[in-house]
Specification:
The chain is an all-alpha fold and about 80 residues long. It has one helix and no strands. It has a domain of about 45 residues. It is rod-shaped. One of its GO terms (biological process) is FtsZ-dependent cytokinesis. Keywords: Cell cycle, Cell division, Coiled coil, Cytoplasm, Septation. InterPro entries: Cell_div_ZapB. This is Cell division protein ZapB.
């Protein structure tokens, strides 16, 4: 191999290594973002469950209050 070919090969290898390093950094950023989104999803699911429970409690209260109203069937 000539010196020129070796230099080209070295340049290509260096470019490949640089690309791999950049991709590794991007992968780490995406892993961090994924972790943050998973945490956010868990919080939203908990909040959703709490709101559903509150809604069910309000429905029960309303049904209880409506049950206390006099019925129109006696009229």
């Amino acid at each position: 191999m000539s010196l020129e070919l070796l230099e080209q090969l070295e340049s290509r290898v260096q470019n490949a290594l640089d690309t791999m390093e950049l991709m590794q950094l991007e992968l780490e950023e995406e892993k961090q973002r994924s972790s943050e989104l998973a945490s956010q999803q868990q919080q939203l699911e908990q909040e959703n469950q709490q709101l559903r429970q509150e809604l069910a409690a309000w429905h029960n209260k309303i049904e209880g209050l409506l049950g206390r109203l006099p019925s129109d069937s006696a009229a």
